[in-house]
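Priority: medium. Attachment 1 of 2:
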């Protein structure tokens, strides 16, 4: 079966996805969370449902607890923004990576390649990652609105139905 046939089957089988959005930031609030708003608009614009949304401080134990809660609540996809850099307080990568049962290294690789086209060598600072935890897909994006938009528009939304189909079949 060709890649396009495979995707066509997935899109017909998965019309709408239940999602969770987790913004990880020591400074953002729900009112100032531009990245979270971009994620929500993209998901809802594509016909998906946002079941959970939260802003949390960059504390690994809290991140893990919330991701576990989102997965248990039926979020087939969990998208995080923030905490993926190398600053002292950036702990999203470590918290999420410890949960992942399957990793999708291609997501981070392609994200950094696309980001490089926009911001140059600073793209290497991103530890954007993705994988599967308890049949939920998790995508970790940087916190900048431009990075969130890039990840959503170029990678996540175009392939979301296919990825979910792969985790449920």
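Attachment 2 of 2:
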């Amino acid at each position: 079966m060709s890649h396009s046939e495979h995707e066509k089957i997935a899109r017909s089988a998965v019309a709408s996805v239940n999602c969770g959005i987790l913004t990880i930031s020591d400074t953002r609030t729900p009112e100032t969370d531009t990245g979270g708003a971009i994620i929500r608009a993209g998901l809802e614009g594509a016909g998906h449902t946002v079941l959970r949304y939260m802003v949390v401080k960059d504390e690994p134990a809290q991140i893990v607890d919330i991701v576990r809660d989102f997965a248990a609540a039926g979020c087939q996809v969990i998208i995080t923004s923030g905490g993926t850099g190398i600053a002292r307080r950036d702990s999203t990568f470590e918290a999420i990576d410890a949960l992942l049962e399957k990793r999708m290294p291609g997501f981070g690789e392609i994200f950094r390649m696309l980001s490089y086209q926009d911001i140059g060598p600073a793209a290497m600072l991103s530890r954007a990652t993705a994988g599967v935890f308890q049949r939920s897909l998790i995508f970790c994006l940087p916190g900048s609105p431009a990075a969130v938009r890039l990840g959503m528009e170029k990678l996540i939304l175009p392939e979301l139905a296919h990825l979910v189909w792969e985790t449920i079949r």
